[in-house]
Batch of 4 targets.
Target 1
Amino acid sequence: MEEIHVNQKEKRIDTFLMKELSYSRSFIQHMIEEGFILVNGKKIKNSASLKEGDTIFITPYEKEIDIKPENIPLSIVYEDEDVLVVNKENGMVVHPAPGHYSHTLVNALMYHSKSLSSINGDFRPGIVHRIDANTTGLLLVAKNNKAHEILAKELEEKKTYRVYLALVHGVILHDTGTVDAPIGRDVKDRKRMCVTSFNSKHAITHFKVLERYKNASLLELHLETGRTHQIRVHMQYIGHPVVNDPIYGKKKLIDDTGQCLHAKKIGFIHPTTSQYMEFSCALPSCFTKIQNIYKEEK
């Protein structure tokens, strides 16, 4: 890990590091967002100002990458001049990140549309929110900055309706429940999140049991907040981890398709027409294949 000690008066961190690292502003901002750049050991915003005496910690990172459009098929549920609703397939990373600079949803979106919002920089054009690589289902994409700002505000104000389906270990006896527990980064492993009071954010997940099997439960979940790995962390926290989850689940996995978690439904107020729109999609085969194993258990 590289350390840079600040010995000058107040200056924006991204402006300061452009000179120190010879990277573009968007690339530095991406590194900050992903936690590869910390100030005094803490995660900060792109707009944060440095003070004399601050120490910047930089985790080794690959050289600046040129993100290119790729002709990758997309399952588009809805599209107009302002928004796209995409049904993301299993295994597809949403945006470029270390180790995944190609074959992402962003690469596919850049090929599909010449018009995507630029608010989130070169690495996340159009991306308003995201889901994990092995979580399937619906994602909202903004095709211009005005639409992005409105949709992002809806998410922040909890006006966006998001429903997930998850297969979890164990039989949950009560029909409904709410998990209200703060989520933060695991200090022992930065790739994991956990329920913690340290550097955490408020997180609420509501769930309803749809079906019960001998050793598992099929849940419908509604997100009141949108924290990283929220459903996976909350389900582990209450003792019912998502089936086939390689990070938060049981050690023995059924296959390599990842967690049985699907973004089934999304509802939002259209940024131009102000009309409420709602879309849904069916469970993918990678999910139903594992679900059937539990259904058939005697």
Target 2
Amino acid sequence: MKKWLVGIDEAGRGPLAGPVAVGVVLVSKDFDWSQIEGVGDSKQVSAKNRSTIFRCAHNLKKIGQLDWQVAMVSASIIDRRGIVKAINTAMDRCLNSLEKRASKESLETYNPIAWSIKLDGSLKAPDRFIDQETIIKGDSKELVIGLASILAKVTRDKYMERLAQKPEYQIYDLGTHKGYGTKTHRQAIQKYGCTDVHRLTYCKNIVK
């Protein structure tokens, strides 16, 4: 049975606004990583290089060299269910999508037993995936996790930049800080209050 490598990481666990994003990457264990250079921890890769890697991953996906999926869960769900459940929901969506697509290609790829999953930080995949390993700082140690990290971050950043163009959000400058708790973002929340894209549970100590 051919073995497949899966990398999982999230982006946006800590911001005051916007969704959390989870990226999942599926490659064969003999995948040639020279096809996509510069992969690593998304926080250590420049925005320009992240965009280049994202485009490369998109092109490789189109020609069937790898597969990947990013899912996002909104601020309102984070408030209702907590960040851990929100991340797990996004992860499940990604894995289910990849399994469905893989099943159309070959039963060998579809079988979760053939998937060796590498996860960053404290993440855990569903129990049906027997071969899984959680790695502290995995995005800098495993290329497949690093790529998942970059895809999740670029997808989320692009979403926040689009959101920032809407009139009701322009005063928060979401396109610059991507929803994180910068001084200017906190000051804007104090002055204008929260919107429907803010995580109220994260902002409760800012808004009195």
Target 3
Amino acid sequence: MTAAASTKRRIAIAVSGIVALALLASPLPTAAASAATAAAPMAAKSHPTKSVSKATTKAATKATAARTQAAAAVAAADYSSIFATQQPALTNSGWATCAAAITWSVDTGGLSADEAAAQIANLTWAFDQWTPASGLAFQYTGTESLAYDDAAFSLKPANGSAMQSRHVYLAFVADGDSARLGGGTVGLGSPSQVWPSTKEIITGAAVFRTDHVKQANAREDKSLYMHELGHVLGLAHASETSNIMYPVVSDHTDLGAGDVNGVRSMNKPCKAAA
């Protein structure tokens, strides 16, 4: 499946079937975790206090520092391409770091005017967090009506106009209108078109479950948006909870070292867009 060629007659691959989801974290601890927490103070009281030598304390401090450094190294290397498993030929595709901003628009159908304004502000904030990390600039161009194809996971202008290049399409979708959204799945995101010769992503899309964003607080919405935008930028899920690409989103709103290293490693020079 292909999209229209550019003036140089290059063909952009329309990405189909590559989509990554965000899961909602449970707000309550498990019964086992609760029991362990409750038992901890009693267990601590059952042990007498012992004196510890300075040498032992120093050794323990060094061991703790070593573990911290090792954990930081693991988190920093905790990233991969969204294409790695399903379309390996496109692995490490990324956006070009041109001076011109990547534009984005959003379909706010299903939200009230006040809700739409709040979520556009949250989305703008989320894009802004990725700017210093990625070296990419983003610019909001307004709301527009978009047609969502759940089976193919695609967002296109509802009026039939051509998709813009270097553009991200976003929409709020009711879970009843999507077989992909529902249960714990509250967002989906992916690149939409890629130049295969240069591995440059030129369009992306993300959708968010309407009922979730209405019920969640601002930090939770921002966390979701940052996560799905990471997929749009080419990142797959991460394994470390310190990275925003960890698949269970809550109210975490800080990019991790793996997020930053990942998006920077996948960016393409602007000449790729020429």
Target 4
Amino acid sequence: MNEHLVFMLQLVITGIAVGGVYSLMALGFVLIFKASSVVNFGPGELVLFGAYVAWATILNMKLPLYVALPLTLGVAILLGIVIERGVLRPLIGEPLISVIMVTFGFASVIRGFLNMTWGSDTRPFPVLFSQQPFHLGPVPVSPVHLWSFVGTLALLTAFTLFFRLSLTGMAMRATADNQQVALSLGVSVKWIFALSWCIATVVSTLGGIILGSVRGGVDFSLADLGLKVFPVVILGGLDSVAGAIIGGVLIGVLENLSGGYLDPILGGGVKEVAPFVVLVMILMVRPYGFFGKREIERV
């Protein structure tokens, strides 16, 4: 096979793997927006928090993985409860800009707490997968990218089944569609808000663990990767779960192709900028994204 084609396929496969992680993080963003209409401006810090807690439990506290991972997810759930109950619930009924600024502020608090606790140095992340690459036909693939994609796909499938088949998932969908109708059916909307934040912090934590494994280390640049959530959700639509999944994969592939082909020509930096260029272009053409719900106001 032509080596240029092999190179392109390798970029696409890696992009799909990383894009799956973006989809996972975007899922949490969409859930919060659908359930409570809150735009969370701290997704990167949630990813950073999860990655640092995982590093602390696995390498710092020397806990086995089967203990460290549930403990990390438990801390993530606790963080979600603190954010929703202690920070956002008192702001119910307040102007939207107040809620947005609070999410900004809480993201800064998380970043500052992590900096004070563990510092900003790069921390080596435990090697969870084999380092020996294998081949899909003629295309060499890193095991960490393959298993990251498999794990992300399994999680996305599990969450999709949860939303469609479980009573709690149906209650979340009902709350997202119409809070007043959900209340009339006996759904505790406040509990759904809290559950949405807990799921968001859990998926962000899992995204941080996967990204830490892919990068082989944890530092504050992970928060910048969390910002890729915004072009993902704008591309897919702010209120679309399917859009978050598809948008994440598309952004991951676009990012990798830009880095592989344009970075060497333009001297670097294109990979980081490309998703946000696409974000601006989408907003100009389709402000609601490809799968978002178009709101029509009659006057």
